[in-house]
Known about the structure:
Order of helices and strands: HHHHHHHHHEEEEE
Helix content: 55-70%
Structural class: alpha+beta
Strand order of the largest sheet: 1-2-4-5-3
Number of strands: 5
Distance between the termini: 71 Å
Keywords: Membrane, Transmembrane, Transmembrane helix
CATH architecture of the largest domain: Up-down Bundle
Strand content: 5-15%
CATH topology of the largest domain: Rhopdopsin 7-helix transmembrane proteins
CATH class of the largest domain: Mainly Alpha
Oligomer: single chain
Low-confidence stretches: 269-340
Number of helices: 9
Amino acid sequence: xxxxxxxxxxxxxxxxxxxxxxxxxxxxxxxxLTMQAIISLVKKARQRAAFTHLVLLSYIIITxxxxxxxxxxNAKYTQTIWIDxxxxxGGPPVLITTELDFWINRMALSCYYVMEWFMSALLLYRCIxxxxxxxxVVVLMTSLFxxxxxxxxxxxxxxxxxxxxxxxxxxxxxxxxxxxxxxxTLLVVTRLLMAHGDVxxxxxxxxxxxxITIIAMIVESAAMYSVLGVLYxxxxxxxxxxxxxxxxxxxxxxxxxxxLIILRVAEGRAFTGTVQTRSRATTTLEFGVPASHSHxxxxxxxxxxxxxxxxxxxxxxxxxxxxxxxxFRSDSSKELTVIx
Length: 340
């Protein structure tokens, strides 16, 4: 069957339609991980009444609501493109290229930007904690965080008067958010490698391997969003229709990367690594727990925790970075907590 529509317009329509399908798949994965993370965190909060778990639970719910509103807006406009307004002059290609002229798309874009603010704030917090509130790291990462917020607001303002691909600030915003994600990963990995070296020198290679597990998890999670972000920047900068395949999924993928870490923390998998000490005790490393929440007093009771600082053996370790807590669980159920 022949068609009078140019091939370029067909490619534009196909890319937008397939992008929405991919967005539905990514949202489905995001939805599933959100439910799993909520269930796990609720269980942990009941067991420990941990403030950190309650904060993470609030973060998950807020970002999920924003993602759902954004996805619903995109789904509604997809219906508008090919069903409700398909007979407008120029057809679906016109509706696709002028999508930000419609309030529902600006609303969806705003929801995803605010969602990214929350996700960037969580990255900022983790980075500051693990670097023990180092002033240089705090200033650098906070500046990048505030800069991304300012640019996203500027994009939303200009979206009312310009075509989306003509908003040059959008490229700067995308580059800043992806670059911040990569920089965060490098900073955290560097700090963990420093801790890995300290533990390896004081306790041996076996115990230090736990940090490698944490590093691998962080790199794997960050790579998901970073790779997709670089592809999106390249396609957006060249005005390629390939950007439509990524645009409706990229925020979901960023959320998935965060949820994978949170879920592993909540369930005690991957984010918390375990190895065996010489005395057959188990070493557990928890990343991202402020030291101020974990200090205790020395006690011989089975249910007490002992705080030790220094250098030496499993009972007397070199100081580790703040935000990293080592717990040694012995066969007699005693716990020796080493906190910096």
